């Protein structure tokens, strides 16, 4: 699976609309979990691997590279951290997570 680039075909969009490229990226296994975890601060590869539980080192490396290439995370002295764009994305998605918790109560 190649890196989703706005303006180029991505999963679900032949036009590569920017929002579709973003949803393609975020829909990949553990991409959202990594962003969610890094919002609380930088993390090492091992801590991310423990947080993601069943993720293989190969998949984690691939996801970290994709998120770095999309300028959402960066490598720091302390480990991986969100960039300003990554923090902004988290803050936009967080209300969706809160809404989902309320929505989930309909299934109990």
Describe the structure.
With 108 residues, this protein is mainly alpha-helical. The chain has one domain: Winged helix-like DNA-binding domain superfamily/Winged helix DNA-binding domain (Arc Repressor Mutant, subunit A, Orthogonal Bundle). It contains five helices and two strands. Strands 1-2 form a two-stranded antiparallel ribbon. A hairpin with a 2-residue loop joins strand 1 (73-76) and strand 2 (79-82). The mean pLDDT is 93. Keywords: DNA-binding, Transcription, Transcription regulation. One of its GO terms (molecular function) is DNA binding. Residues 17-108 form the HTH hxlR-type domain. This is Transcriptional regulator, HxlR family. One of its GO terms (biological process) is regulation of DNA-templated transcription.
Order of helices and strands: HHHHEEH
General form: globular
> CATH superfamily assignment?
Winged helix-like DNA-binding domain superfamily/Winged helix DNA-binding domain
Fraction of residues in helices?
A: 40-55%
The amount of beta strand, in percent, is 5-15%
Strand order within the widest beta sheet: 1-2
Largest sheet: 2 strands, antiparallel
| Average of per-residue pLDDT values | 93
CATH fold label: Arc Repressor Mutant, subunit A
How many beta-strand segments? 2
CATH class: Mainly Alpha
CATH architectural label: Orthogonal Bundle
Protein name: Transcriptional regulator, HxlR family
Domain HTH hxlR-type: 17-108
GO biological process, one term: regulation of DNA-templated transcription
GO molecular function: DNA binding
